[in-house]
Amino acid sequence: MIPNLDWMQHAACAGLDPRAFFSIGNHARAQVNAARRVCAACPVRQQCADWAIQTGERHGVWGGMSQQQLRQRRRRFTSRAKTSTRAAS
Ligand code: SF4
């Protein structure tokens, strides 16, 4: 099944340099905070977060989440998925 990515057309970061969302070096914290400010006003923040979790994105700011927040949310998502699978079997 081909995923519906129409939401990306409405991204607040469309047209921005993607490197702004992938922090590196000494200014990583400031860069993440700047990216998250863009995300705060994004109308497709939830879709972006869901996409990052479902596709296993490990780097960058997605849905207004830092890499650490994304990792934590993915753990919860994976844990819930395993619980649901066990309950269904
Ligand atoms: S939530 Fe942030 S990274 Fe995701 S589409 Fe919106 S602006 Fe881009």
Automatic annotation (TrEMBL):
What is the role of this chain? Acts as a transcriptional regulator. Probably redox-responsive. The apo- but not holo-form probably binds DNA.
Question: To which species is this protein native?
Answer: Streptomyces dubilierae
The record's subcellular location field reads:
Cytoplasm
Cofactor(s) needed: [4Fe-4S] cluster
- Please provide the record's keywords in A-Z order: 4Fe-4S, Cytoplasm, Disulfide bond, DNA-binding, Iron, Iron-sulfur, Metal-binding, Transcription, Transcription regulation
HAMAP family, alphabetically?
A: WhiB
Region (Disordered) residue spans:
64-89
The protein, known as: Transcriptional regulator WhiB
Low complexity bias: start-end ranges: 80-89
Q: Does the keyword tRNA-binding apply?
A: no
Family affiliation: Belongs to the WhiB family.
Q: What is its main location?
A: cytoplasm
Q: Which InterPro entries match?
A: 4FE4S_WBL, Whib
Post-translationally, this protein is described as follows, namely: Upon Fe-S cluster removal intramolecular disulfide bonds are formed. The Fe-S cluster can be nitrosylated by nitric oxide (NO).
Q: Where is the 4Fe-4S Wbl-type domain?
A: 12-72
Where along the chain is [4Fe-4S] cluster bound?
A: 13, 39, 42, 48
Q: How is the cofactor bound?
A: Binds 1 [4Fe-4S] cluster per subunit. Following nitrosylation of the [4Fe-4S] cluster binds 1 [4Fe-8(NO)] cluster per subunit.
Asked if the record carries the keyword Transmembrane, the reply is no
